[in-house]
Amino acid sequence: MADGKMAGAxxxxxxxxxxxxxxxxxxxxxxxxCGVTIKVRxxxxxxxxxxxxIHYPLPxxxxxxxxxxxxxxxxxxxxxxxxxxINFDEGExxxxxxxxxxxxxKEIIVLEIEAKDVWTVPQKTIDxxxxxxxxxxxxxxxxxxxxxxxxxxxxxxLKDEIFRQLMxxxxxxxxxxxxxxxxxxxxxxxxxxxxxxxxxxxDLAMLHNxxxxxxxxxxxxxxxxxxxxxxxxxxxxSAVQDAPAPAVTEPAxxxxxxxxxxxxxxxxxxxx
Length: 272
Hints:
- The chain is of the alpha+beta class.
- It has helices spanning 2-13, 15-25, 123-138, 153-174, 178-228, 237-242, 261-268, and strands at residues 28-32, 35-43, 50-57, 67-74, 80-81, 86-89, 94-103, 108-115.
- The chain is built from seven helices and eight strands; from the N terminus they run H-H-E-E-E-E-E-E-E-E-H-H-H-H-H.
């Protein structure tokens, strides 16, 4: 009882602060047809009308442009469209429901913010990564005679690893929907998937470098083969007698060996 009296005195003197705290700890997120719905509950525990300042943080990752609907529900009535403020807090680096309103005695209101589910990797992104990997592996230089060279085994292995990581993202998303693991679990899974996609981007860059190195190597070998054979012109004997002594030429450089798979990997990873 002593605690109740202290709480009552606190409410009378600090009505706005108490209602803000209630709103902060009673918000939750549920699934919606086209995203998620954040619900913020505010309560006026007093026997008199009271002004309320609601300052509730939206889950990390949601921006103002991701909000697609705002509603308010008073008492037991249905929710109706509303136009409460959503502002960015520079200190916290997140968006907040940030509004002021007046609540009737003992009134409970619920603010609903419908937003896009920004914690899901679109299937289009997965497909684009796969397409890039497939295209890079197929970009093989042609051998002499116009025959297409076979795929580089190292490039094929790297592509397979990229596909494995992308499948890992897909499976993780299936197992981490909001209805299965809750909001925080859904967000945590998304953060892990983002780390995997960053690795996929690095692997794609490596695959691109490998393909570029192969093209440069093939071009160098082709130009060297053309310069090796030089036809000699038939000069009359009189011209030979009058002509100055030929200049001493340097011997032709030795053919450059085609880089091995180990050489390619060494060129990609330069340790300092």
